[in-house]
Amino acid sequence: MTYQDYLDQKPVILTAALTGGVHGKDANPNLPEQPDEIAREARACERLGASIVHVHGRDRHGENDTGRLQAVTEAIHDRCDDIVVQHSTGGQGPLRERIKALRTDPAPEMASLDLGPFKRDRHIITDHTRDNIDTLAREMRRRNITPELEVFNGGQLAEVTRLAEDGLIDRPFFVNLVFGGANFTPPRPGAVLELVRTLPEGSEFNLLATGRHQRPLTTLAVLLGGHVRVGMEDNLYSDRGVPAESNAQLLERTVATVESLDRPIATPEETRAMLDIEGDTVGGPRPGDELAAGEQAADEGSACPFLAYRSEGDGRSFDHERPYCTVADEFVSPMQADVCNDRFDFDHRSHCDVYREYVESETAPVPEEDD
User: Fold this and answer.
1) Could you tell me if 126 and 263 lie in one domain?
2) 3 state DSSP class of 123
3) Are residues 27 and 146 in the same domain?
4) pLDDT at 259
5) How far apart are CA 32 and CA 40, in angstroms?
6) ∠ at Cα 176 (173, 178), nearest 5°?
7) Do the Cβ atoms of 248 and 41 come closer than 8 Å?
8) Which of 233, 257, 275 marks a domain boundary?
9) Where are the annotated coiled coils located (predicted)?
């Protein structure tokens, strides 16, 4: 992907990220959460030129629920003509939950594949180990699902090469460069240029930027011959302090920018050709599903008897209840809860003491150096 691609008027793939798994309607009441809401937004974005929709599943309270992706996919197919559906396999849940995003019937034509962990809030680190990444990549290959490779910082580009060398992904690599928020790549034009320069050969790059950085950095991506993702998962505002009315509103201004720069917008058919999406995914249960690496051991454990789920009472629609350790007498991260649920038979009190020490070390003031 180069400036020459821009000059040659290579079609731009537009992805609409409709809902995400972090914000709730308390942050913007126009955010779609339920299958029919998501499908209506998908249809509106398809009419404007989006050829891919990136979706998460949420339950009736707006909480993350991978199991709801089946209903979301069915609703989108009912309303849309030919759009490519891309499921998220990200988030903070255990592998056995994330892999369900690949087992809907029909399976999605695409799915996101996070190439490493990132931090959120004070004590949350997403659980994207190499074992988990490889398990999801193998499952995508097994079901003929095209991965979108999520790169949260420059070091994760090395994972693209590793996965290719291990035979888990094929060219063209659809690399999604993520800027802003959490500990993603700093949202600066120079950082965009550097990552684009270091893309592995055979890559098509997509770019998303959070919040106020969405508009300028996606415009830069268009000039560099890349593709763009916009939507309310990444940005809840149409202007500074003005909540977006819909995903279509955000996409509409992106379409205007692309057209003003004289690049055509890719149709779903052109998108499938550029990304080598074959469209014959394998959905539903398959022999060996229960043997996917990392899942069987996790499913054999029972829930930790010391864990409860309690509301913090902060009113966030996406966080009604959080895991609470009754031994440590504190809320714990979703990842910590997964560890406890999967390995409940270890010395829990000892483990909680270790976890408490970790929290205290993270929050302790840094001592001043002696003069």
Assistant:
1) yes
2) coil
3) yes
4) 97
5) 9
6) 155
7) yes
8) 275
9) none
Predicted TM-score (pTM) of the model is: 0.79
Summarize pLDDT for 200-248 with one digit per residue, the tens.
Answer: 999 999 999 999 999 999 999 999 999 999 999 999 999 999 999 999 9
> What length is written for the chain?
371
- 360: Cβ–Cβ under 8 A, 6 or more apart, which residues? none
Residue 99: predicted pLDDT: 92
Measuring CA to CA, which residue among 9, 174, 165, 23 is closest to residue 86? 174
Residues 251 and 330 in one domain: no
Q: Are 228 and 24 in contact (CB under 8 A)?
A: no
Give 300-327 as a DSSP string.
HSPPPTTEEEE---S--TT-S-EEEETT
Q: Taking the mean position of all CA atoms in its chain, how far away is CA 225? A: 23
Report the pLDDT value the prediction gives residue 40, as an integer from 0 to 100. Answer: 98
Q: Which domain holds residue 348?
A: 301-363
Tell me what pLDDT residue 306 has.
63
Residue 57 is encoded by which pair of tokens?
A: 């599943």
Q: Is the same domain home to 13 and 79? A: yes
Residue-wise burial string across 218-230, b where 16 or more C-beta atoms lie within 10 A, e elsewhere:
bbbbbebbbbbbb
The reported pLDDT for the residue numbered 238 is: 95
Residue 302 neighbours by CB under 8 Å, 6+ apart: 341, 344
What is the side-by-side order of every strand in the sheet holding 307-310? 307-310, 322-325, 330-331
| Residue 190 φ/ψ, nearest 5 degrees | -60, -35
| Residue where one domain finishes, among candidates 275, 293, 317 | 275
Query: Which of 212, 214, 233, 219 shows the shortest CA–CA distance to 28?
Result: 233
Residues of the chain with pLDDT under 70: 1, 92, 119-125, 127, 287-288, 290-322, 326-329, 334-371
* Helix H or strand E encompassing 173: strand 173-179
